[in-house]
Amino acid sequence: MDILLLIGGLLLILLGANGLTDGAASIAKRFNIPSIVIGLTIVAFGTSTPELTVSVSSAMKGSSDIAIGNVVGSNIFNILFIVGCTSLVAPIVITRNTLRKEIPLCILSSVVLLVIANDVLLDKGASNILSTTDGILLLCFFLIFLSYTFAIALDGKSQATDEENNIKQMPMLKSVLFIIGGLCGLVYGGQLFVDGAINIARSLGVSESVIGLTLVAGGTSLPELATSIVAALKKNPEIAIGNVIGSNLFNIFFILGCSATITPMNILGITNIDLLVLVGASILMWFFGLFFAKRTINRTEGAFFVLCYVAYTVFLIYNA
Do residues 88 and 305 make contact, with C-beta atoms less than 8 angstroms apart? Predict the structure, then answer.
């Protein structure tokens, strides 16, 4: 039964990713909106829905480690595994604007989380906690991010790239239905996959902490993985990279912001090693895009990303 959940969830994820990518790209072309804006907003928010559901519900139930661990683990998975796997399928071309603004903003979000999660080290507090004030601060950053994406949309409406000229434009209603149907497939398929994976892991005797840090984080990021790979195959690299960057920003600024605003969250199981890995992965993505292969993350670099994620996972399991 659990194997069927895995297979069924994966099929729904793949179908949902295909529909979401086609619908979002069609709307972007219709309104002359840059693909990066669609990737950073509609696609990123849609594929981050599983993380939003898990983190907010966990925070409300008092399971703050699951809420924070899900976001941190998902963001590491997004950069190292998703960007790595996507570039193995098709090298990801990164625009100058993405290198100069979007990726640095992604690095900033990781650094902000590292700072506000270190009350004991920086403020000599009794414990590390994401307070209501921290949550409001994160939501303020999220509003700045949204303002930035709207500015891109206004500045870039008259500009069309070669990739956007190749996008198939569908009727508006069909595009919206594709997006809604795709999101439903991604969210429900991701839930089925996570449930199946958790049941299998438990039956094999894997600890709950390892499940939370790896399977739950990776499972809730499956929509991002499927969407980015499909977008890369459809020659929409801006949606592929925008989806990853946007999802990471949504996860930290919006999801953790909402969770901490609803209820303060104690940080117990997530260490500075995990947070530093997240910061390092963000910097690595910027470094590879800036200095190698003409703003392209190629297959060799993608393989290195995947190996880094495997090494991090082995470290978690070994130290569990």
Answer: no
Strand partners, 187: none
Helix ranges (H only) for 31-82 are 35-38, 44-47, 49-60, 64-76
- Within-domain flag for 9: no
Structure tokens at 171: 């009727």
Report how far residue 208's alpha carbon sits from residue 186's, in angstroms, rounded to the nearest whole number: 24
What sign for the dihedral angle of Cα 196, 197, 202, 205? positive
Range of the domain at 243: 35-158+205-318
Give me the residues paired with residue 265 across strands. 130
Question: Any residues with CB less than 8 A from the CB of 263 and at least 6 apart, and which?
Answer: 59, 60, 62
CATH classification at residue 106: 1.20.1420.30
Residue 179 lies in a domain: no
Residues near 220 by beta carbon (within 8 Å), at least 6 away in sequence = 50, 51, 54, 70, 74, 190, 194
| pTM score | 0.79
> For residue 100, what are the CA distances in angstroms to 19, 109, 299?
30, 15, 22
Beta bridge partners of 130: 265
Determine the pLDDT at residue 207: 60
Domain tally, the chain? 1
pLDDT, tens digit, 9 for 90 and up, residues 255-306? 899 989 988 988 877 889 999 999 999 999 998 887 765 778 888 999 999 9
DSSP 160: -
In a domain, residue 174? The reply is no
Q: Is residue 146 part of a domain?
A: yes
CA distance linking residue 252 with residue 71, whole number of Å: 7
